[in-house]
Structure formats: C-alpha cells, structure tokens
C-alpha cells in the first residue's frame, strides 16, 4: 500500500516539469522581442551600415532563430517525453517530429544546434579579427572544436548503444518488395 502510494506520487511529480516548459515559452517571447529589436536596428541604420556590420547583424538574427528553434524543440519534445502527450485536435496543425524525438535524439539535436550556434559566433569573431586579440580568438576556436568533438562523440555513442536495438527491429520488420516485385496476396 505504501509502495503504491510512493509510486503514484513519484509518477505525479512529473507535472513539476510542466511550469518549467511553460517558462521556456517566456524565453521564446524574449528571443522574439530581441529578434525584432535587431530587425528594427538593422533597418534604422541600413543606409549607413558597412557590409561587415550588415553581415554581423544577419548572423545575429540567424543565431536568435536557431536558439528559438532549439527552445521549441526542447519544450515540446521534453513535455511529450516526460510529462504528457499533447492532445492536439486532428484538424489543427501538428508538427511532424512531435512525439518522435526520444531523449537521446533530443540530446543529439541540442548538441548539433550548439555546434551551429557556436559556428555563427566563431564566424562573427573572425569578421572582427582586428578588434579581437589572437589568444581570445584561439580560445573561441578551441571551445568550438570542443563542441564539435562532443557532438561527434555523442553521435557515435548513440549509434553504438542503439545499434543492437535498431538491428533487431530491422530483422523483425516485414521485408519491403523490391522495385521489380509486387506484393501479392497469398
């Protein structure tokens, strides 16, 4: 009886995550405001901006979009994986990946997004090389390469740890007919 009550309490505690995911939607609002602030700044100074400043502003906008997309991915898939399935009407729009990202896949997508965001920051740093000390630029490269190596290692570990599961599901799957064969009822 006590064990069952503890298990029910533990299972219900997953709902503590719901406000955390809701809080991420506030982060989206902040990123959206910052995005439109940058757009406003861009159009306000467009005619006086140098080409490098324009490119840096565009890279900042792309960076904000990548971070916002990452937040949406974590928010939706985290909620679906750990709290509850989203009950979305059949007539309304549904994201194709919703419900298909397990925690391992989500970690890989987060790592890849971090590499992409780091790449943008590194590119911004290289565009301002005259204003950045060489040792600081070297640290940017080292940190970026650390993110790249980490993402690659996570991908390799995921492939190794889930290859047996994937091989088993491939063996038990019904074979698909080749292009020259048609499947006929027996």
State the major sheet: none
- What's the average pLDDT? 81
Put simply, the count of helices is: 5
**What is the N-to-C succession of helices and strands?**
HHHHH
The N- and C-terminal alpha carbons lie at a distance of 53 Å
User: pLDDT under 50 segments (min length 5)?
Assistant: 181-186
Number of domains: 2
Helix content: over 70%
Structural class: mainly alpha
Based on CA inertia axes, which overall geometry fits? Answer: globular
Rg over C-alpha atoms, rounded to the nearest angstrom: 23 Å
Q: Care to count the β-strands?
A: 0
Q: Into which percentage range does the β-strand content fall?
A: under 5%
Protein name: UPF0114 protein Thi970DRAFT_00126
Membrane topology: Multi-pass membrane protein
Family: Belongs to the UPF0114 family.
Keywords: Cell membrane, Membrane, Transmembrane, Transmembrane helix
């Amino acid at each position: 009886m006590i064990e069952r009550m503890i298990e029910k309490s533990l299972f219900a505690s997953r709902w503590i995550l719901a406000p955390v995911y809701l809080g991420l939607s506030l982060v989206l609002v902040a990123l959206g405001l910052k995005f439109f602030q940058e757009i406003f700044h861009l159009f306000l100074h467009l005619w006086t901006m140098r080409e490098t400043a324009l490119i840096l502003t565009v890279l900042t906008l792309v960076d904000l979009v990548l971070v916002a997309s990452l937040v949406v991915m974590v928010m939706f898939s985290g909620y679906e994986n750990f709290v509850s399935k989203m009950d979305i009407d059949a007539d309304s729009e549904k994201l194709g990946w919703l419900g298909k990202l397990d925690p391992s896949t989500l970690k890989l997508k987060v790592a890849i997004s971090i590499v992409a965001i780091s790449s943008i920051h590194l590119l911004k740093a290289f565009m301002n090389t005259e204003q950045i000390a060489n040792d600081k630029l070297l640290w940017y490269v080292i940190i970026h390469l650390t993110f790249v190596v980490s993402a690659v290692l996570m991908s390799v570990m995921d492939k190794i740890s889930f290859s047996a599961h994937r091989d088993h599901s491939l063996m038990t799957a019904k074979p698909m007919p080749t292009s020259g064969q048609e499947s006929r009822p027996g």
